[in-house]
Specification:
Strand content: 15-25%
CATH architecture of the largest domain: Alpha-Beta Barrel
Number of helices: 11
Largest sheet: 7 strands, parallel
Strand order of the largest sheet: 5-6-7-8-9-10-11
CATH superfamily of the largest domain: Enolase-like C-terminal domain
Mean pLDDT: 91
Helix content: 25-40%
Number of strands: 13
Number of domains: 2
Amino acid sequence: MQANFKKYNLNFKQASGTSRGILTEKETYILEISDGDKKGIGECAIFRGLSYDDVPEYEEKLIWLCENINNNAEFLKSELKHFPSIIFGLEQALLNLKYGKDLYFPSDFTDGKDSIKINGLIWMGNADFMQKQIEEKLEKGFNCIKLKIGVDWESEKKVIQKLREKFPAEVIELRVDANGAFSFDEAKIVLQELAELKIHSIEQPIKKSEARSLKSKDSMMAKLCAETPTPIALDEELIGVIDFEEKKKLLELIKPQYIILKPALVGGFSGSDEWISIAESLNIGWWITSALESNIGLNAICQYTYTKKNPLPQGLGTGALFTNNFETNLHLEGDKMWHKKTNN
């Protein structure tokens, strides 16, 4: 086998706001593995400023992978354990090499027979901008909406209040994602306000650096999860936790109501499988979201997600954000993600 990679910059159609700032482009790497006439494509979807493997030697590790591609896959992944986004791309490329076309996990989903229910994502901005996005999602038939919050909570709260006045919780499920925007004291207040608005859950209310501790008495996230009136979902908290026992220890300590899995950030599909097995053993809910991958990575995540048979709405609707994305067989119909059957 032979392997090569290339860097690719995805350009946003419009600047997208998060609590980390305004995003205008997203850097990624496309990995190709060939074996005779067969080729497999994967995306090493690094997320600058967030990925555990956002390090200067990232491309050096990709070069190493290409030079050592004929080694056993498990050996390669063990050597890449501190590079979760490269494991993500490697797993995709090997699966695609096996199945061909744009296939990674063949199923009724890839045959166009079934779909995945997703949430509608609302980006941060002023009240009018957020309200416009919400109206567009509702018109398309979404009944689970996720709002990015944490830039101006008072304004964001007013938007949610107006939405709740029109649509009760049994009609529209609302999730929010703070990306660690609040302090511990702020979060306690926000969690109560969210409960009054009957919010389904909040992702990462406080920063990972503030939340993480191996000592229970010092873990502010554990305290929040134990006392919160609004279910808490861990997101960034999972990044950089590599070993199985460390993952188990973290979830046993914090005891969140949910975890959010981004395969590119947690070691690909094998890393996600580990988190899922631990979460389910502890009665912790979970769902899967994309992390601004191109359509290559998003396609693979959707196919993987379908095989997990999770009934909750998933966070997979980011493929239309870019002006220069790759062609895809994925398409949205209302709040359902479909995959056109791949012709043989």
